[in-house]
Design a protein that fits this description.
The complex is a heterodimer of chains A (160) and B (223). Chain A contains seven helices and no strands. Chain A is 70% helix and 0% strand. Chain B contains four helices and twelve strands. A five-stranded antiparallel sheet of chain B has the order 1-2-3-4-5, with helices on one face. A four-stranded antiparallel sheet of chain B has the order 9-8-11-12, with no helix packed on it. Classes of the chains: A mainly alpha (160), B alpha+beta (223). The interface between A and B is large, with 66 and 74 residues.
Chain lengths: 160, 223
């Protein structure tokens, strides 16, 4: 019980932020609660470094939620509720064009601030596979941004 | 821009910022060939614009030229989409291509000659989107005969002339979804399994394969 309370106290805000970066605000609390419920049930399996494990649980919970949403309203799950990069429309465009697989590994590094080793725990893959996935995703994003920048005048107010 | 700059830029656009410093991994050790491809992509994007200048009378490159509408009337009330349209230099008008199965389609070419589309699932509050195809192979072309939106998530979009059917395939070539094309538009309405679509295939009326496109391409989603 004490360990669960400690994990909850240490990581609740981070898990909530993780979910908020990927889901509509009205479902965030449900996803976070479900994540910590799984943590409680599987407390003996939670590693010492709990946060990547919690992210992985939250990721699976989110995926389940999206599948459920898709069954209820097939069209809605594609875009609705997934926050995009803010303040940079061109980046948002390029990022949105990537596959979910690419976006997730980039988000884990850029938005959660994870190392690739921790990201591999979230993505349930080897560290080597995660590194390859990350570099490929980053190159694809850079290519799309380079293509846009090479041909379009710099809009005012865009931060680079 | 280096690829780590890309990550820093993405981090700066974090919708829920963190205080912790980034763990930027080591620079990518990509094969030279891959870097060359990226540079070639950036250079080749100019080609469609040159081609575009010579065919102003054929704005979209498809038979369905649609009806001209004001850009401000397309997806009003969605600031992120308005911002994306402005930053991607969409002009004052777009072409309304029609509504199929509850999805309204708008298209134009921006100042760069990129094919841009906006979609409006008219009965939904959130399923609106806008994007431009900033690839070397613009649409329509031999390699790109269908644009899907959202890329690899829905089998909805715009198809080139001569395309009768659009299919989503997994990496083993299994057909995940298939939908007919009507007036250059297609809407299956099916949510495609997350991450499973490897190719978008187009077929003519006789079932001959016209193109097999790795996914994406599709225009980047605006929202």
């Amino acid at each position: 019980m004490q360990r669960f309370e400690q994990i909850h106290a240490e990581h609740h805000d981070a898990v909530r932020a993780y979910v908020r970066r990927r889901a509509a605000e009205d479902v965030v609390d449900d996803i976070v609660s479900e994540t910590f419920l799984v943590c409680w049930r599987k407390l003996d399996r939670v590693p010492d470094e709990a946060l990547p494990w919690l992210y992985a649980v939250a990721r699976k919970t989110l995926a389940n939620h999206r599948r459920k949403l898709a069954r209820q309203a097939p069209l809605r799950a594609a875009i609705a509720g997934e926050p995009e990069p803010v303040g940079d429309g061109v980046l948002a465009q390029a990022f949105g064009a990537l596959s979910e697989r690419d976006r997730e590994v980039l988000r884990l590094v850029a938005w959660e601030g994870l190392s690739l080793r921790d990201a591999s725990v979230v993505l349930d893959c080897s560290a080597v596979a995660c590194r390859v996935r990350y570099h490929r995703a980053k190159a694809r994003l850079a290519s799309r941004l380079a293509a846009a920048a090479s041909f379009r005048p710099e809009p005012e107010g865009v931060t680079r | 821009m280096s690829t780590n700059d890309v990550i820093a830029r993405l981090a700066a656009a974090n919708p829920i910022p963190i205080d912790a410093p980034l763990h930027l991994p080591e620079p990518a050790r990509l094969p030279r060939r891959r870097v060359a491809v990226a540079i070639a992509l950036a250079a080749a994007v100019a080609v469609p614009a040159v081609a575009f200048a010579g065919r102003l009378g054929d704005l979209l490159g498809i038979t369905n030229e649609g009806a001209t509408v004001s850009t401000t009337d397309v997806l009003p009330g969605y600031p992120a989409l308005d911002q994306a349209m402005q930053q991607l230099n969409v002009g004052a008008t777009m072409q309304y291509l029609g509504t199929l199965n509850g999805v309204a389609f708008y298209a134009t070419r921006n100042a760069a000659g990129d094919f841009c589309i906006a979609i409006d699932r008219v009965n939904e509050q959130y399923d609106k989107g806008f994007g431009c195809l900033a690839n070397a192979d613009n649409f329509p072309s031999g390699a790109v005969k269908a644009l899907t939106f959202p890329p690899a998530a829905m089998l909805d979009g715009v198809a080139a002339d001569g395309v009768a059917t659009v299919e989503a395939l997994d990496s083993n070539g299994n057909v995940l979804a298939s939908t007919p094309v009507v007036n250059n538009l297609f809407v299956s309405g099916d949510q495609l399994p997350d991450g499973s679509v490897a190719y978008i295939e187009t077929l003519d009326a006789n079932g001959n394969v016209l193109s097999k496109q790795p996914t994406p391409p599709g225009p980047p989603s605006g929202s």
